[in-house]
DNA sequence: TATTGTTATACTCTATAACTATA
DNA sequence: TATAGTTATAGAGTATAACAATA
C-alpha cells in the first residue's frame, strides 16, 4: 500500500539504464571504465575538487578512490596538487589531456543523447526537469 | 548548443544516485553486492527468466552473469532449471529463501523510500511518471 | 579527538574472446 | 550458421578496517 512510489523508481532506473546502454559503448571505446568516466564527468567544467568531495558526488568510497585516481593519473588525465589550506587534502583536476578527452567523449555520448532527445519539445523538457528537480529535492532532504 | 537535454540527464543521475545512497546500506547489510541485488530485484515478482533476458534487463554481460548467478545459487537464493523448450537455455527463479529476502529487503529499502516520498501528492506522482515514461519511450526507441 | 587520505585484504565485478552444446 | 551459456584471463572496482599525517 505504501508503494505508490515504486513505479516512479522503476521508471527512473529504466531511464538511467537506457541512457547507460546508449553511452556505455563510447565510454569503453575511449578505454575508460564506468568509474573512471564518472570521475572525468564529475571533474569536467569544474576547477577541481578534493577526494572527499569527489567521493561524495560519485558514491565511490575513499579507499577505492585512491586506486581510481591513481589510474587516471597514470593515464595523464588528472593531476593532483596539495590543498593550500589543508595539508591533509589534495586538489584533483583534469589535465589538458583530461579536458580534451572530456570535450571529446562527452559530446560523443551526448550527440547520441541529442538524437534521442530530438523529438523533445521545450514543454517536454520543462515538465521532466520540474518533476525531477522536485524528486531530487525530497531525496536530498532525506537523512 | 545542442545540449538542452544535459540538465535532464544530470537531474536523472542525481536522483538515481540519491536513491542508491539511501538504499545501499540496507542492501549491503543483507550481504548482497549491487549486482546481486540487481538480479534479486529483477527476478522478484516474476516467474523467472533466462540468462539472456536477465542480462538484457540488468546490463550484466553473459560471462559475468554466470558468476553472479553461481554465487546467488550457492547462497540458496536462486535456482536453475533447464528450459523445457530449448535445451541450451536455463530458467532462473528465486527460491523460497530468495523470495523471502526480496520480501524482506525490498520493503526495508522502500520503507526508506516511503519516507522520502511521504510528501509527494498524487499530482506529483502523475507528473513524474508521465515525464519519465515519455523519456523512457524515446530512449527505448533509439537504436 | 576528528578528519583526509593511504594501505592491505579478500572478494566481486567487468569486458573480452575462445569454447561447448544445441538450434 | 547462429545462439545460449561456460570457461579463462587479466584487470578493475568494492567494502572494510587499520593506519598515517594533519587539523
From TrEMBL, chains A, B:
Entry-linked SMART domains: HTH_MARR (SM00347)
HTH marR-type domain mapped to chain residues: 2-137
Presence of keyword Glycoprotein: no
Matching InterPro entries: HTH_MarR-typ, WH-like_DNA-bd_sf, WH_DNA-bd_sf
Pfam families on file: MarR (PF01047)
Single GO MF descriptor: DNA binding
Keywords: DNA-binding, Transcription, Transcription regulation
Top-level taxon of the source organism: Bacteria
Xref: Gene3D superfamilies: Winged helix-like DNA-binding domain superfamily/Winged helix DNA-binding domain
PANTHER family: TRANSCRIPTIONAL REGULATOR, MARR, TRANSCRIPTIONAL REPRESSOR OF EMRAB OPERON
Annotated protein name in UniProt: DNA-binding MarR family transcriptional regulator
Organism: Pseudoduganella flava
